[in-house]
Write a structure and sequence with these properties.
alpha/beta; Isopropylmalate Dehydrogenase; ten-stranded mixed beta sheet; two-stranded antiparallel ribbon; 11 helices; globular; binds 1,4-dihydronicotinamide adenine dinucleotide; binds magnesium ion
């Protein structure tokens, strides 16, 4: 089988970690071809546009993209390319697995939590943000819809079924945000009834933060609205040792974009020491999405084995003495073994 994906190398460390990731993907023999497209600072310099139409068209054509981090220039009124991509393709599900890996500075072992965050509505709609003319009153209107809540909750349950997970927790603040969070919670309760084989529980968001820190093992799949999901998924990344190992999948009906959660890391760009694992794990999720689950699992296992046994080759953020390319080399070697 041959499948072409759109590849956005990205800014800062993006091209370094993308080169490493594609080398590892090639070693996995997935039959993928790459259509390189421009976005971010590169695109701004080349085409005068952070997100050229040709890039959108080619992502639409291939339906799947692997994306490096993009720098959003501060000032000049630029909208984040990431936000624009999510909106353009209606990528309503932001799926963020937090899985423990060996040799990190995490306080816990064997964490395995997937956060499913609604990615298009809630408190993050730009239309809901207003400031009065005198600058005295700021409003941010959260807007959740039945349709938006249904599709994200359903996505979480379907994911749980597909991945053999046992439990879905709906996180909300319906006690205070009676309408917006209340609608989400009611929809979650309704849809949960359709999945009797999956345990369902509900938890208020502030308590969830405490519970995640005190006893993260009680969580399996978390489904929640946009703002809470943004915060909780970073909290979960912290439980497994930080953003260097956190992939983020943005899924819609017509397209899916897989990326690392971290940014373009300008402080280490060009030094060859960026950890490629978050993007590699995003690539593994992409393989799952393309029905190459065995390959995705093989990649995750190779990363795990490398982190356990080849400590010298891993990047400095994980305590190693290696580089982006020595890390990738070690993973490629494990795949070949
Ligand atoms: P950042 O995630 O780029 O960096 C935060 C810290 O983590 C830095 O010290 C960096 O060196 C380190 N770091 C990040 N990724 C790493 C890796 N793979 N290996 C080793 N260390 C790593 O966040 P920051 O500095 O807030 O943002 C920089 C730029 O990235 C901004 O322009 C921001 O808009 C953009 N950004 C883009 C994202 C995306 O495209 N999805 C997400 C987050 C930020
Ligand atoms: Mg965030």
């Amino acid at each position: 089988m041959s499948k072409t994906i759109a590849v956005i190398p990205g800014d800062g460390i993006g091209p370094e970690i993308m080169t490493a990731t594609l080398r590892v993907l090639d070693a996995l023999d997935c039959g993928l071809s790459y259509d390189f497209v421009d976005a971010g600072m590169v695109a701004l310099e080349k085409h005068g546009d952070l997100l050229p139409k040709a890039t959108l068209d080619r992502i639409a054509e291939h339906k799947v993209a692997l994306k490096g981090p993009l720098t959003t220039p501060i000032g000049g009124g630029f909208t984040s390319v990431n936000v624009t991509l999510r909106r353009h393709f209606d990528l309503y599900a932001n799926v963020r697995p937090a899985v423990s890996f060996p040799g990190t500075r995490s306080r816990y072992e064997n964490i395995d939590i997937i956060t499913v965050r609604e990615n298009t509505e809630g408190a993050y709609r730009s239309e809901g943000q207003t400031l009065s003319e005198d600058g005295e009153i700021a409003e941010s209107v959260a807007r959740n819809t039945r349709k938006g809540s249904s599709r994200i909750v359903r996505y979480a349950f379907e994911l749980a079924v597909k991945k053999g997970r046992k439990k879905v927790t709906a996180v909300h603040k319906a006690n205070i945000l009676k309408t917006s969070s209340g609608l989400f919670l009611n929809v979650a309760r309704e849809i949960a009834r359709e999945y009797p084989q999956i345990e369902f529980n509900e938890m208020i968001v502030d308590n969830t933060c405490m519970q995640l820190v005190m006893n993260p093992y009680q969580f399996d799949v978390i489904v929640t609205t946009n703002l809470f999901g943004d915060i909780l998924s970073d909290l979960c990344a912290g439980l497994v040792g930080g953003l260097g190992l956190a992939p983020g999948d943005n899924i819609g009906e017509g397209a899916a974009i897989f990326e690392a959660v971290h940014g373009s890391a300008p402080d280490i760009a060009g030094k060859g020491i960026a950890n490629p694992c978050a993007l590699l794990l995003a690539a593994a999720d992409m393989l799952d999405h393309l029905d190459m689950v065995a390959k995705g699992d093989r990649l995750r296992q190779a990363i795990r084995d490398t982190m356990t046994n080849d400590r010298d080759s891993v990047t400095p953020d994980l305590g190693g003495k290696g580089s982006t390319s020595s890390f990738a080399d070690a993973i490629v070697k494990r795949l070949a073994a």
